[in-house]
Specification:
The complex is a heterodimer of chains A (114) and B (232).
Chain A: E1 12-14, E2 17-19, E3 29-31, E4 34-36, E5 39-41, H1 56-68, E6 79-92, E7 98-113
Antiparallel strand pairs in A: 1-5, 2-4, 3-6, 6-7
Chain B: H1 8-13, H2 17-35, H3 50-69, E1 90-96, E2 98-102, E3 106-112, H4 115-118, E4 121-132, E5 140-149, E6 156-166, E7 170-175, H5 177-185, E8 190-197, E9 216-223
Antiparallel strand pairs in B: 1-9, 2-3, 3-8, 4-7, 4-9, 5-6, 5-8
The chains are: A mainly beta (114), B alpha+beta (232).
Chain lengths: 114, 232
């Protein structure tokens, strides 16, 4: 996948870090110190369908399908996460118990066009 | 997004940077709280002391090493075991005791488990850790009763009773997995542990004055997988 930089309009991953101390959550979240809430943004014009972040063969397959099915009817595809990982948290719950858990699919590592 | 509705991905591009930041932080908060099944961020009135937390984590680690090294003894608890690598969300819960009533021969400890998780997790293992402080040599019999409120919450019923013979100062563990699981299945979250000694030794042997030897329960749990019906 591609990280957004400069004025690229194409589908890419935007980094965004939420510092728990800045939002006043550091008293109940023991670890980690923040959350990488990255997200996908950007355009997925026709010729981008299926890349980046997915296998090239899939891209070719998608393009062939679009050609075969009357290209001008096709619309842009969407810029979505193609790779994600869990967010591990150690926190106090409302009864002051200490809970450790891994919340699946919370951190976006790569983006791509459907 | 439907015509005219606000599309989160493209809508952000038109927002002023500060507004965009506020929107993203609000989304991050909402996402974390909903995944932890919390209606709002918890207000921590008495955070656990660092000493107690570090001691508990060390004890749990040591216990795991002991169990891993013990020659082939299968786990007594009949709880389903953790299968590492499963895609189901897993939890480790540390619940420190809240001291209850005590007499010269008995003491009550209360453990409040996680309200928001109670209905959505199944307990895999739960172990009670107690630190004995033995006043004199010899064998000291101690009775440990696990009490839980009945469904009305008005009375308590005894879930189990165990006789221990304490011979020296140090940590002892007791498997409370079945009691905690039955607590959760009844929708209650409070487990009371009653410790009783034969003679008047004063509060039974517990090092309750020492912060880093405070009794605790360590539980491992797993999110309940929704019951799937497969049609052929």
């Amino acid at each position: 996948g591609i990280d957004c930089s400069g004025d690229s309009q194409m589908c890419c991953r935007k980094e965004f870090f939420v510092d728990f101390k800045e939002i006043g959550w550091e008293d109940w979240i023991i670890q980690p110190e923040g959350y990488h809430m990255n997200y996908c943004a950007g355009l997925c014009p026709l010729h981008m369908a299926g890349i980046p972040g997915l296998a090239a063969s899939f891209h070719t397959a998608v393009l062939n399908l679009i050609k075969a099915n009357n290209a001008d009817a096709a619309v842009d595809s969407c810029c979505v996460p193609t790779q994600r990982r869990p967010l591990s948290l150690l926190y106090y719950d409302r009864d002051s118990n200490i809970v450790k858990t891994d919340i699946p699919d919370m951190i976006v590592d790569a983006c791509g066009c459907t | 997004a439907p015509k005219g509705a606000w599309c989160p991905a493209c809508g952000l591009a038109t927002l002023a940077p500060t507004t965009q930041r506020d929107v993203l932080i609000a989304l991050a908060k909402q996402s974390i709280l909903s995944k932890l099944r919390l209606p709002d961020r918890p207000n921590i009135t008495q955070p656990t002391s660092r000493g107690a937390l570090l001691t508990a984590l060390r004890r749990m680690h040591a216990q795991r090493v002991d169990v891993a090294l013990s020659p082939g003894t299968p786990q007594e608890s009949s709880m389903p075991h953790l299968h590492p690598g499963m895609s189901v969300q897993e939890y480790e819960i540390l619940s420190f005791a809240e001291s209850g009533s005590s007499t010269s021969r008995s003491i009550h400890l209360h453990f409040h488990f996680t309200r928001e998780l109670a209905g959505s997790i199944e307990i895999l293992q739960a172990t009670l850790y107690l630190f004995w402080e033995v006043p004199s040599s010899g064998i000291h019999p101690v009775t440990i009763r696990l009490l839980q409120p009945d469904p009305t919450g008005l009375n308590v019923s005894m879930a189990s009773e165990t006789q221990l013979e304490v011979q020296r100062t140090g940590w002892a563990t007791l498997d409370v997995g079945r009691a905690v699981q039955s607590l959760f299945s009844q929708g209650s979250q409070r487990l009371t542990v009653e410790l009783q000694v034969a003679e008047d030794w004063g509060p039974p042997l517990l090092a309750v004055h020492s912060d880093s030897h405070w009794p605790f329960v360590a539980a491992q749990a797993r999110a309940r997988t929704p019951h799937r019906v497969q049609r052929r």
